[in-house]
Design a protein that fits this description.
By secondary structure, the chain is an alpha+beta fold. The protein contains 18 helices and 20 strands.
Length: 565
């Protein structure tokens, strides 16, 4: 038996519980009751127990019972029942009377015993705020007594004035005999510390360290300069918060990052009448420069993006994107998450990547380098097609004119013809390719040939913008768009209204239209949908943006728009 097996399940269930509780709260949320769901504090009190070397900490800053009224399908009730079913604990009788307004889960240490020979064994800490310390002590006693009845060996000790209870279910196995250094104990430890918190951990040492962190303040997370700077970015009334120590997260994943610009990240979740706003700030000790001048309103290029777009990206100035600190952040984030610099955006915008490959061009050098004004990029998924149509709109300038001329030259060098077309009196340039097709004729010995013209791309200019599309059908939609653009879409309007101004632009994803496309490009998403089915069933769209003016941090947000039915 692995030493982590029992409590790992408890910890994982706790983490899922936090996520489900938050999710359940916001997709049953109504505009008439926001005041009832504002957290009483924006910072987790349990941070005093967590080491400043902890890679990650996540906290729910509201009592689950405050969310119960919103639980129309009783997801929370089911969760509470299933979470404690095997332990013989009744949530309503044993926990509800004393549980306060905070539940915090932290990775306390990367390796409990710091012995590399037996592998990395993380220490986990779960802190539950208590409003009735005596009742919570009774709960801890009851919890461990039931585990003793189930066969656990209990140990009780006093450590710096705190009563620690732990159990040790040790199995003498062949593995233990062959490898005395292997850690196969299955620990669970608990304590009530002071008047404020009940602590659980997967090893008594984790609890001792937590107590040391309180009594030696320079050891705990609240003494970390990075954490102090990060918490200043938290909005008031956030429902949940997470803090990541990025270099240690990378170490936890066993990664050697070639580029380590950002030191920490803090995330907060706040409810909105239309959904949930997740705000995050990445902090660095280096001076950084925004990728472009912040925008005080949505770019005009969006007026040419149809409301049917499944993905729309808008902003200004792509010329310095490759060297921007935002791009460096993306490289660091993808390397930390995936173990490499894999570009997930290229997966989502695969049609553009296909164009790049087919034409033998480099998007940053051959296109983005001359986009210094407004731009908008969009994908229009079609159920019948695996590859969506695409649109690229860019504000006119002298550099854009030169860029279009260069693209025409590249098209010609790849064997494409520049063909003039007219649609509704609008002059269009099409990149076309002539192909031959054969088919059997009625004459046995002969074959007939036909010549087909395939459109590989088009461009035209409207108003102050140059517009590129993948096909004639999409170009026709743009020419007849009238009052049916994405900026006329109520869902898009509601989504960007939740994002602060000024900002660097928007990435808008219509989930209902793009779900199939995303599942094909990011297969792991299907697993996430299974785990978070209630959330994904109610997700309408998500919108991302970067904003803030601090020269030592990048701040942004993701707004999840939900179906409030």
């Amino acid at each position: 038996m692995n030493r982590q097996r029992s409590f790992i399940g408890f910890i994982v269930a706790g983490a899922i519980a936090l996520l489900v509780i938050v999710i359940a709260s916001f997709y049953w949320f109504f505009a008439k009751s926001p005041a009832n769901l504002i957290a009483s504090t924006s910072q987790p009190g349990a941070a005093i127990f967590v080491s400043k070397l902890s890679p990650a900490m996540v906290s729910l800053l509201a009592n689950p019972d405050r969310l119960q009224a919103l639980d129309r399908e009783e997801e929370l009730s089911k969760l509470k029942t299933s979470l404690f079913a095997k332990s013989g604990i009744d949530y309503k009788e044993d926990i509800q009377p004393w549980l306060g307004d905070e539940i915090t889960l932290a990775i306390a240490t990367l390796d409990i015993d710091r012995d590399l020979e037996n592998g990395q064994q993380p220490g986990y800490l779960l802190a539950l705020a208590t409003k009735q310390p005596e009742k919570s002590r009774e709960f801890v006693e009851l919890f461990f007594s039931k585990r003793a009845l189930a066969g656990a060996n209990l140990t009780v000790e006093q450590y710096k004035g705190v009563k620690l209870i732990s159990d040790n279910q040790e199995e003498i196995t062949k593995e233990k005999i062959q490898n005395p250094k292997s850690k196969i104990q299955n620990y669970l430890a608990g304590a009530v510390v002071g008047e404020g918190f009940v602590l659980f951990a997967n090893d008594p040492k984790v609890l001792r360290d937590a107590i040391n962190n309180v009594q030696a303040p320079d050891l705990n997370l609240t003494s970390s300069p990075e954490y102090q700077k990060a918490t200043k970015e938290l909005p008031k009334g956030g429902l949940a918060v997470a803090f990541l120590n990025l270099p240690i997260v990378a170490k936890w994943q066993g990664l050697e990052l070639s580029e380590q610009l950002y030191n920490s990240q803090i995330i907060s979740l706040a409810l909105n009448p239309k959904g949930l706003l997740a705000e995050t700030t990445f902090l660095t000790s280096s001076e950084i420069v925004p990728p472009s001048t912040p925008l005080s309103k949505p770019v005009g290029a969006l007026q040419y993006i149809p409301a049917s777009a499944g993905l729309a990206i808008s902003g200004s100035n792509l010329s310095n994107l490759g060297d921007s600190d935002l791009t460096k952040l993306w490289r660091q984030a993808t390397a930390t998450i995936y173990g490499s610099g894999e570009d997930v955006v290229s997966r989502l915008a695969k049609p553009l990547a296909d164009v790049q490959k087919r034409w033998g061009i480099n998007l940053p050098e051959d296109i983005f380098s001359w986009v210094q004004g407004e731009y908008a990029i969009a994908l229009l998924p079609e159920k019948e097609q695996t590859t969506p149509h695409w649109i690229f709109v860019v504000e006119k300038s002298e550099s854009v004119e030169k860029g279009v001329t260069r693209l025409d030259a590249i098209a010609s060098s790849n064997g494409l013809s520049i063909s003039p077309l007219t649609i509704d009196q609008q002059k269009i340039s099409a990149w076309t390719e002539l192909t031959t097709a054969t088919k059997k004729s009625d004459v046995k010995e002969g074959e007939s040939f036909s010549i087909e013209t395939k459109v590989r791309g088009l461009h035209t200019n409207l108003g102050n913008y140059e517009i590129f599309t993948s096909d004639l059908e999409t170009m026709d939609k743009i020419l007849t768009i009238k009052n049916n653009s994405i900026i006329d879409n109520p869902n898009f309007k509601d989504s960007i209204a939740a994002i602060p101004l000024p900002n660097q632009g928007y990435i808008y994803l219509d989930w209902t239209k793009s779900q199939n496309l995303l599942e094909r490009q990011v297969p792991i998403l299907k697993l996430a949908e299974v785990l978070g089915k209630p959330f994904f069933n109610n997700l309408r769209s998500l919108t991302l943006s970067s904003y803030g003016t601090d020269t030592r941090s990048i701040k942004g947000g993701v707004f999840f728009q939900l179906n409030n039915s």
